[in-house]
């Protein structure tokens, strides 16, 4: 929600907003803008990951970030509270993510964190403990952000509409450069030089493979070609995802092989040569647990296909698609279980449990989990269009 809408019926000082302070430039400028508008602003620093799980160099990033957030809030003369969701994060985000990795899937913990922690538990806590009218956060915005490289509407695609109505996005319309300029003008040049915390939310900048190995002991298996030929050994399936380059020790063509399939039963990874191999391309996917932020679109309620755009992955470009509700046994179209087939012209295949988001223009309609990709061009014996490029 925009700040102007939040002020439509009350004076700014009568509207309490709790800003999720991360110690970074985006949340700091968010608090600054709301303070300038006259809102009753408070800061809250969320601790979701046990600080004893320090990074690989022995530093606890949480302590550093909290100190930075405290410094900003002191300058703005607003209170800062530390709120912990360590236990909830472990049960609602981390454990399901590890279970998905172990099953050979590729989950998106950041989307789960937004849905289960930031826009559910954090919102409810701010309402009950601090009597907040709204929460606010940096960057995240339901519409595509002004800065395409920092747009995070994809991460909101599985969040409820009710939660978003209680959330303000003061910097969502700004580019990263504009946000940094505002920080410098406020005397916070040091914040603009701070390294981004981007990365999987509970891993951060740590080595992903080594981190997961701590919780899912790797089991060696074999790489196979599409015809079943054994090409070499792998060190564990969790180290690979569909579409990723696979380097097989001792093979001269290792830099040309890509993962096209994984089998948990056989602990095998199937690879093919070339990033544009037909086994890596598909024209459909199947999604479940789809959540529509403002309710199911009319076309789908009528059992018809919805023309929109889909996006898989934060930085991948959206593309046109047709979303169709799957047919139950009685032949009647239904979306009761949020099951859909997504048809498009051509795209790289996707890994199960990645998130697919749906858009109409700049507006995020919602999103869900990918259950599986449709048949590949290889499976369909379908020629790859001459115009296709990665």
UniProtKB/TrEMBL annotation:
SUPFAM superfamilies per UniProt:
Adenine nucleotide alpha hydrolases-like (SSF52402)
Q: Which GO terms describe its biological process?
A: tRNA wobble position uridine thiolation
Q: Which GO terms describe its molecular function?
A: ATP binding; tRNA binding; tRNA-5-taurinomethyluridine 2-sulfurtransferase
Q: Which EC numbers does the record give? A: 2.8.1.14
Q: Where is the tRNA-specific 2-thiouridylase MnmA-like C-terminal domain?
A: 283-370
Instruction: Give the enzyme's main class according to its UniProt record, as a single word.
Output: transferase
Catalysed reaction(s) here are: 5-taurinomethyluridine(34) in tRNA + S-sulfanyl-L-cysteinyl-[protein] + AH2 + ATP = 5-taurinomethyl-2-thiouridine(34) in tRNA + L-cysteinyl-[protein] + A + AMP + diphosphate + H(+)
Could you list this entry's UniProt keywords, alphabetically sorted: ATP-binding, Disulfide bond, Nucleotide-binding, RNA-binding, Transferase, tRNA processing, tRNA-binding
The membrane-spanning stretches of this chain are none
Per UniProt, residues of the tRNA-specific 2-thiouridylase MnmA-like central domain are 210-272
Question: Is the keyword Metal-binding in the record?
Answer: no
> Pfam families given for it?
tRNA_Me_trans (PF03054), tRNA_Me_trans_C (PF20258), tRNA_Me_trans_M (PF20259)
Protein role: Catalyzes the 2-thiolation of uridine at the wobble position (U34) of mitochondrial tRNA(Lys), tRNA(Glu) and tRNA(Gln). Required for the formation of 5-taurinomethyl-2-thiouridine (tm5s2U) of mitochondrial tRNA(Lys), tRNA(Glu), and tRNA(Gln) at the wobble position. ATP is required to activate the C2 atom of the wobble base.
Q: Tell me which NCBIfam families the record gives.
A: PRK00143.1, trmU
| Family the UniProt entry places it in | Belongs to the MnmA/TRMU family.
UniProt name for this protein: tRNA-5-taurinomethyluridine 2-sulfurtransferase
Q: What species is given as this protein's source?
A: Acanthamoeba castellanii (strain ATCC 30010 / Neff)
């Amino acid at each position: 929600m925009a700040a102007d809408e939040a002020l439509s019926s009350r004076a700014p000082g009568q509207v309490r907003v709790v800003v999720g302070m991360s110690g970074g430039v985006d949340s700091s400028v968010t608090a600054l803008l709301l303070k300038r508008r006259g809102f009753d602003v408070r800061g809250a620093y969320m601790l979701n990951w046990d600080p004893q799980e320090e990074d690989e160099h022995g530093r606890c990033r949480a302590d550093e970030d909290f100190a930075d957030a405290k410094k900003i809030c002191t300058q703005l003369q607003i209170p800062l509270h530390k709120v912990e969701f360590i236990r909830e994060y472990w049960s609602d985000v981390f454990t399901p993510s590890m279970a998905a990795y172990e099953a050979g899937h590729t989950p998106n913990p950041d989307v789960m964190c937004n849905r289960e922690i930031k826009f559910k538990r954090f919102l409810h806590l701010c309402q009950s403990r601090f009597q907040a009218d709204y929460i606010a956060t940096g960057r995240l915005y339901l519409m595509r952000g002004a800065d395409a490289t920092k747009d995070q509407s994809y991460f909101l695609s599985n969040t409820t509409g009710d939660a978003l109505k209680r959330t303000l996005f003061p910097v969502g319309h700004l580019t990263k450069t504009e946000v940094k300029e505002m920080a410098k003008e406020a005397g916070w040049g040091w914040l603009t030089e701070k390294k981004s915390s981007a990365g999987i939310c509970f891993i951060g900048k740590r080595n992903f493979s080594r981190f997961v190995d701590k919780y899912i002991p790797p089991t060696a298996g074999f790489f196979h070609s599409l015809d079943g030929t054994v090409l070499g050994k792998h060190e564990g399936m969790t180290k690979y995802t569909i579409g990723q380059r696979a380097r097989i020790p001792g093979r001269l063509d290792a830099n040309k092989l890509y993962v096209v399939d994984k089998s948990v039963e056989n602990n095998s990874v199937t690879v093919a040569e070339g990033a544009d191999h037909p086994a890596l391309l598909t024209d459909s996917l199947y999604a479940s647990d789809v959540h529509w932020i403002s309710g199911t679109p009319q076309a789908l309620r009528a059992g018809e296909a919805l023309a929109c755009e889909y996006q898989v992955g934060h930085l991948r470009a959206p593309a046109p698609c047709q979303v169709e509700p799957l047919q139950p046994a009685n032949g009647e179209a239904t979306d009761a279980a949020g099951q859909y087939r997504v048809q498009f012209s051509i795209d790289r295949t996707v890994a199960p449990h990645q998130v697919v988001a749906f858009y109409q223009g700049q507006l995020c309609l919602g999103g869900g989990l990918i259950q599986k990709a449709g048949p590949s061009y290889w499976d369909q014996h379908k020629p790859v269009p001459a115009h296709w490029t990665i």
